[in-house]
Amino acid sequence: QCFIFSITVNANLTSLPEKHLVLLRDGRTLIGYLRSIDQFANLVLHQTVERIHVGKKYGDIPRGIFVVRGENVVLLGEIDLEKESDTPLQQVSIEEILEEQRVEQQAKQESEKLKVQALKERGLSIPRADTLDEY
Amino acid sequence: MFRNQSLEDCPLDEDEDAFQTLGEEDEDINQFNDDTFGAGAIDDDWQEAHERLAELEDKPATARELEDGAVSDEMELLGHHEENLAERLSKLVIENELEDPAIMQAVQTQPPMQQSGGLNSSIWDGSAVLRRFRGPLLTQEMPSVSVLEYAMLQKPPQGQEDERDLSERALPRRSSSPIIGSPPVRAVPIGTPPKQATMPNFIQQILCPKPVHIRAPMQQRYPSPYGERMSPNQLCNVSAGRMSPSQFARVSGLVGSPLTSMNPKLLQGRVGQMMAPASGFRAFFGAPPPPAPPSSQQQHPPCPGSHLQNLRPHPQMFRPDTTHLHPQHRRLLHQRQQQNRNQHRSLNGSAGDRAGHRSSHQEQLRKDPYANLMLQREKDWVSKIQMMQLQSTDPYLDDFYYQNYFQKLEKVSAAEEMHGDGPKKERTKLITPQVAKLEHAYKPVQFEGSLGKLTVSSVNNPRKMIDAVVTSRSEDDETKEKQVRDKRRQTLVTIEKTYSLLLDVEDYERRYLLSLEGERPALMEERKQKICDMYDNLRGKTPGQERPSDDHFVQIMCIRKGKRMVARILPFLSTEQAADILMATARNLPFLIKKDAQDEVLLCLLRPFSLVLYHLPLGTVTSLLQQLANLPQSATVPAPANLHLTAVLQNKFGLSLLYLVLSRGEELQNSSAAMELMQDNQWTELMSMATRELLRIPEAALAKPVSTPSNLLSLFSRYVDQQKLNVLETKLQLVQGIR
């Protein structure tokens, strides 16, 4: 429904800008400096980086300035800069992470296909949830 | 229409005439135009006005450079223009108080304050549309929509804002009158936050002279959470008798804060609530909540009083809008504030006052030129909107899961504290501003001199699009299938109705606590009535004295939701009613078991059933056993293969229930006095029959019960000899060790 972003907004005042992490409905994770926000949760992110997570690895793709329409935002959170480096995740290069992601997607699709096949044999069918937010 | 007529009536060879008539019509078109569109379509007023405004556009951009931000005359002109428009509109409308908020925006009256500032100051104010309420309002005068405004002078922004082309956002205003009934075309869309910087020097001008509409009968228990933050102006308008004294004390402490009015005071005339972001976002709840909060608050009921303890009269340090937050949220925020203040302090070594802040401001800009892209005002504005969304008349209705979740959390933490006996954390409850629900009887707008009512459809008064009529089917048409379907539907409807009653009844406890003393008996009555209704619904109302058939009840029990509902209802029923339900269940158990095969929901009934059993006398238990086992009344009748009992025993629920009944019977037997001899005999007979049956049934067919009561062994030992007892033991796994 509505979210309290007072923390975030207040952070705009501090000397060091605080990074924010935004999760979008399609599953993308954006990290950047939140510059502007409005009542619909439309966001303006500065120096945005799209972070792709696969397993324990992640990769950052620099994206520049992002303007996100509010309805696509799932959640928005502030990143504690001190704790940011304190993560068990391992950063890899962009190519590597994209490759990993592709492999993961492929595996998912295969298992999905098998599932659908098995269901079909039993006479059941689960409709493809195109309109749902699935990732 | 004229045209149609000409085409239809004139045969083909009269086409020339038809064209001629069409030609004549063209001359009338201008006439029609005038009638339809009025003078606006022909006059070129709007063009001139546009020119004028376009010129003005350039002026504010330059005016900003001036040190004092002088008001340009043209701005005033425009302001007056809109004022005139508003006045004209308000005269037109009969109903002085337009209830439809969507339409209300079309009529704005400006307070007699100078509207200085840029083109966009009115937009900012427009976004804070007040809602006015009928009903017992404190102030007698009822102006039409009063938009609380303030004058914000523009301070030439520091270098960072030069790059922003502010003129882009301001479109010229239209001079033509808005279409009556719809909100006027806004120069800047309503959702646009303001863009000027705030100036702390104009505190005095900011305070709005207009009184705040407050609902007079504010409940004692829910004083406005913002009471502390009312400016002196608003204080005068508050019904003094209503506010608790502690709030006044706090307000007086806060009034003197220099930054109190730094931000625009956008006051909402919302009932019972004053959204006055009194100070900047900077910090809130400066000091940590006092370690012994309840001492001063004990006289207040915990719920509304607890929020006060979190608000220290720290001048710069409170954030009124965040009282909505759960204490955990607030704690987080507070921590943030501490951190930030520490950072401030380390930067400039000052105590974080305004002067110090300014110098650190420069540093901020150096480090991050894009910081503060959003003005404080804008942030406040958005935050205010979000807080508005949090308002609710009944949080338990609107935000049930949130409330329950945090209640559970609190209970858990309270329980932990009991054990651990650790430091007493704040036990504050979440307070959201309680806005009393007011009924708006919306009446459509009426205009002078018009015949009938104009169909002004807005969001609050939507037009009826479809004329749906409910037709009831006649009995004759129904086929057997339909009847069956309808019966099921009827049952479902009954379940739904009963469920609503159940939810209401479950809620009564909470309402009871919240209500006033005088209302409580009425509440109790209501509750009783609802319980009766529920029971009637369950059993099916029958005319006369005859015992109602089980059919209705069985139908309900066939449906999963019905079973769950019965399980929830049972605690509320009286003993007789509950026993009745139990009997009905026992009687029809095989059927229910069959129906439950897929759902397996019957087990949810075990708990409430067992609770009921503890209240039942032996007689009832005996008959219950009889029903359950479907054993004949007397032992003399040779018992045929007892399918009923078999089915019961083969089902988990059935067996468990049987055990419960037996165990209860045994308890009663042990404790009952000798005067219940008659019942004893019956019980004994039944027991012997039951044991006979149990012996007969092969072990493999037996279900696994949920729990085996411990006294069954002693129970059976009464009625059978040792050998059979052993058999029973192994069969039913009565001995503890075997399982």
- H/E order of the elements of chain A? HEEEEEHEH
Reported for the largest beta sheet of chain A, the result is: 6 strands, mixed
Q: How many structural domains can be distinguished in the coordinates of chain A?
A: 2
Distance between the termini of chain A: 22 Å
CATH class of the largest domain in chain A: Mainly Beta
**Shape label of chain A:** globular
Let me know the average pLDDT of chain B. Answer: 61
The major sheet of chain B is characterized as:
none
Structure report:
The complex is a heterodimer of chains A (135) and B (739). Chain A is 28% helix and 35% strand. Chain A is built from three helices and six strands. The radius of gyration of chain A is 18 Å and the shape is globular. Mean pLDDT of chain A is 83; it is low at 1-14. With 739 residues, chain B is an all-alpha fold. Chain B is built from 29 helices and no strands. In chain B, helix 25 crosses helix 26 (652-671). The N and C termini of chain B lie far apart (93 Å). At the A-B interface, helix 1 and strand 2 of A face helix 12, helix 13 and helix 14 of B.
